[in-house]
Amino acid sequence: MAHAIRVHEIGGPEVLRWEEIETADPGPDQVLLRQEAVGLNFIDVYHRTGLYPQPLPFTPGTEGAGTVEKVGSDVTHVKVGDRVAYAGPLGGYAEQRLIDADRLVKLPDDISAEQAAGMMLQGMTAQMLLRSVFPVAKGDTILIHAAAGGVGLILCQWASAIGATVIGTVGTEEKAELARAHGCAHPVIYSRQDFVVEVQRITDGEKLPVVYDSVGRDTFMRSLDCLKVRGLMVSFGQSSGSVDAFSPNLLAQKGSLYLTRPTLFHYIASRQQLEQSAKELFAVVSSGKVKIEVQQRFPLRDAAEAHRALQARKTTGSTILTI
């Protein structure tokens, strides 16, 4: 029998239980997938803690990669033996899983399952942020919070390849060096530097057209002070907690600012959108312009340990759970 991590009640990492599961044959539009690796993301914490409520019990995990074992009667675009990956459908923390076939994309030969597991959600999020939410152009200067994290390192590399100048906040000197090595021209160590002051200095007071913020409460309000008139605040995560309520009048007072809270799944809802996002991601990785840094690996059964490391900000780059 296969095993999976199951959550029967919301709470801390200790609620992640390693259990035997039964996997049924796929339905007409489904695939039975034998997984090789799954990705670890902060959204998994939000699901586990109930911030993003899920029906109990459930198996967390929103990205992974593996090999197709069985296909449903109506599935035509993948076949048994294909190497595939996905981002989106809950249920990733498992040795085997059923998944809707239209959520799968085939992996190029030069991208491993471990790379894919560490890049599908984070990489397509980066594609969404840089190409759709705010189309970054050569010559732009942008701010990326948590620049040494999984999404952060991909954003830094991709934006740099486009020709943008990246300012990135990090927590330590080691993370600053990692971000710098991946395209961040101006790492800012927030424990000893004021990122608002640094943005003013680096831009000669012009400020920024966009800020990408996955941190939330600790950075949100001061990030607004980094934006030029009619700049865009992109809040796509809240690792430090939810942003406190504020009046929309504040956006007017600070320069008729725009605010968006994008979710990847609204940008890859259709099959065409999913394939286009994955195509751009695979191309930029295969070109070498973006390197996927799998910095931490945990056995799937040790998912609780991985969650503790993630929440303690002890991880950099991508983290995967191996099977």
TrEMBL record:
PROSITE patterns: QOR_ZETA_CRYSTAL (PS01162). SMART domains: PKS_ER. Residues 11-321 form the Enoyl reductase (ER) domain. This is Quinone oxidoreductase. The keyword Oxidoreductase applies. Keywords: NADP, Oxidoreductase. It holds the Pfam family ADH_N.
